[in-house]
Amino acid sequence: MSATTEVPVVGPRQPCPCGSGKRYKVCHGKKAREAERHYVARPFEGLPGECDWVAMREIVSSATAPLRLASGDDRSVVLCTLLPGAFPALVRENGEILLALQTMTSTGDPAADLGHTLTTALEAEPGSTVSPGPRPPEAPRLHDVIDVDAELQVTVHDGFDYWLDPESDAGSDARSALEEANSAIVPSARLSSVEAAYWCSLGDRDQVRWVLPYDEEPLLDGLARLHAAGQDTLGEGTRLLGTFRASGLLVPVWDLVDGTTADAVEEPAAALGERLAEAVAAKTPLTGEQRRARAGLANRQVTIR
Where is the DUF5926 domain (predicted)? Predict the structure, then answer.
């Protein structure tokens, strides 16, 4: 069962389903296009744990975090990385809402997409998946729907068992889909010594992917200062592989020595975090060696998928 409370999408020359008598492309189709064109560089800025929102959307296979509604309603809402079929949300029989970050489609403002999905889910029937229609321009952003004063507490999982409703008996098809999804998961762990750094095991190598809250220019300067001084590593045998951009933030990636566990990288990560904070805050102009290091970093874009 799918719950869609907005005007459904039809062909551009067909009558708009809202009953206005206009063609869809000049009625609700126009509004949907306007909403999709609105681009927000840092869509999760202003939310608690901005960097973890980005990590759950881009880095981590399986993780959850409880959310609190701004309305004060105590209804259970759980943010998750992925749902079966890449659905945007589902509502369990007991009314609990699961809201997914990794979906098939997204506009220029994922926070607005999530706000629209969550408000749709709040009106959906228990036991349904949620497929919101086109997002209207006036749809609330996530920042308007959830309590932005509540801390985001992320739990990383070894599998997607949170897909199963503990109060219902999952069928064989659901369990089969779960096993298939679990077989493709990238083992990950959130480091506890720093914010939003994730250890990931890729089979043939281990990495740390760290979503940092700094603006891009000062962060590149800071990394360049550390690189020129030989202080941008997470210990002997590790190296800064490069960076990638995600939701307006720069994410450095370090290759680790084979077999390095998440626990083993906690202390080096904490020390690097302190060095980096000082390097980013430094105001002195870059030296020639640091400028060359910066140029190298800017050109080393990492692809993680």
Answer: 43-305
